[in-house]
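Sequence in, structure out. Go.
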Amino acid sequence: MAKNEAASREINDQVEEAHQLDPPGRRFQIACECALKTCGRVVTITVDEYRHVRMDPRQFAVVPEHFIGNIEWIVYENDRFAVVAKREGMPADVARDENPRG
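Output:
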């Protein structure tokens, strides 16, 4: 499950790079970074919000209903997405190990 989230994060990092010069507050879409293999949902986010999520390699942006309580907790939630952080142990270890921002 954590590897699926890490793969979404890697794709989303590339999307975010394409929006670096967007005006402040402008929203763009990224793939939901949940653990569900069949998820095709998107999250609408700003560059600043995305960078805030990426400050901690354990954090992921997901649609709120894709929160999985036994492996993560909600750090922040708004009307568009939730930021979840992996619980310590294997979920957090995989998230840190698979972090493309090193």
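Check: The chain has a mean pLDDT of 86. The longest helix spans residues 2-18.
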